[in-house]
Amino acid sequence: EHRKLLSQFVLPVMAQASSPLLSVRVLCARALVPLVSVEAQVSVMCSILQQVPPTPGQQVVQNNLHGAILQVMHLLQQWRDSTRNNSLQESRDILQAVLARSWVATSSNTCPATRADYLNLLLASAQSCNNCPERERVLSVLKDEVSRVRSNVELSCQPVASDLLLKTAASVSLQLLTLSSASMETQEQLTRSLLTSPCVDVRRATFLHIQDMTSRDDLTELLWILPILHQQLEEETDLFCLELCLDSFVVFHTTKQQLQHSTTFPTSLWAVIMQFAQGQKGTSICAKALPVLAIILREMLQSDTCREELHVWSQLMETYSHPLQPEPVRIGVGR
User: CA dist 248 to 179, 210, 253, Å?
Assistant: First the structure.
């Protein structure tokens, strides 16, 4: 009886998903999930996708399209978390429905924002449906499209949306390597390539992926990242990227895992991190640079050639320990 009453709200909520207001579309997508029974989730997802034009030649209202993608994404997340995600037939139904509208992820779709969202939907469906043949087709479509985006995206008159598309393509391409268990050389090559992008959102997405990997994976398999971090600490200009890079550097050098790697740092790295620690890039970077400085100093102490550096570092620690210093800096001293 309770479920029957809730189901009466499904159509009104779905009708609002095409609102011109982004916040309303997002709210409707979230509100739909608890209204749909577990047994009906797949059929509702498929029916929503069936309302998307099957070919790009038809008139497309982007708000409608965006609302539909959001609804399917939220329902897919709920389905993936349920015990029914082992159903082969349901997995096939989902992937077939998503593939049938895959043109949305291509250049045939003139809106970079909904194109990016559909790339994310393709990836989420492949991650959710592991045991059916359609999954390989989805992965193939994804690989082709992210490659096209990275090599041929047009900034046109929508620079913000185009940056979003580039960022999404970068994130998806990195996750595809993880899904396909790509070789270390392939991962390193793609990571270095993305970190040279002039689009700051692409670089941020890449550092976030690195941070995600270092937080959950075996670091012994990720030692190829260390030289990249060393290089980016000297070359990166975006403050958020620098924060992520500093955090990942500390994770590598403070892990309890037994890592067989060289602890020799580029001679120029000390000078760069010292500038950060002296506040050249602001308080947040300063706070995150302090433990990095200590890690480098620890390695230098092994050679007993760092009396001057040790003196400067000690002065910094004394200065930054003062109660009137910003709290993030004092936390950096503690770390």
Answer: 22, 7, 9
- Position 285 scores a pLDDT of 96
pLDDT computed for residue 231 by the predictor: 93
Token reading at 201: 């959102």
Of 97, 89, 154, residue with least CA distance to 125:
97
Ramachandran class of 304: left when φ > 0, alpha when ψ lies in -120 to 50, beta otherwise: left
Per the rule left: phi > 0, alpha: psi between -120 and 50, beta: everything else, 236 is beta
pLDDT, residue 17, reads 84
Rounded Cα distance, 286 and 278, in Å:
7
Local confidence band at 74 (pLDDT 50, 70, 90 cut-offs): very high
Taking the CA atoms of residue 91, residue 97, residue 99 and residue 103 in that order, the dihedral angle to the nearest 10 degrees is -160
Annotate 140-157 with b (16+ C-beta within 10 A) or e (fewer).
ebbeebbeebbeebeeee
Residue 297, Cβ density class (10 Å: 0-12 exposed, 13-18 middle, ≥19 buried): middle
Q: What is the DSSP letter of 22?
A: H
Assess contact for 30 and 43: CB atoms under 8 A: no
User: What does the DSSP 8-state code read for residue 34?
Assistant: G
- pLDDT per residue over 222-258, tens digit each? 889 999 999 999 999 999 999 999 999 999 888 766 6
Q: What is the pLDDT, as a whole number, of residue 302? A: 77
Long-range CB pairs of 254-258, under 8 A, 24+ apart, other chains included:
254/291, 254/295, 255/219, 257/218, 257/219, 257/220, 258/220
Residue 20 scores a pLDDT above 50: yes
Q: What is the pLDDT of residue 59?
A: 79
The Cβ of residue 277 has, within 10 Å, a number of other Cβ atoms equal to 26
User: Rounded to whole angstroms, how far apart are CA atoms 124 and 134?
Assistant: 14
Rounded to whole angstroms, the Cα distance separating 45 from 74 reads 10
Give the pTM: 0.84
Q: CA 156 to CA 164: how far, in whole Å?
A: 13
Number of Cβ atoms within 10 Å of the Cβ of 171? 23
Rounded-to-integer distance, Cα 196 and Cα 86, Å: 40
- How many angstroms separate the CA atoms of 112 and 324, rounded? 48
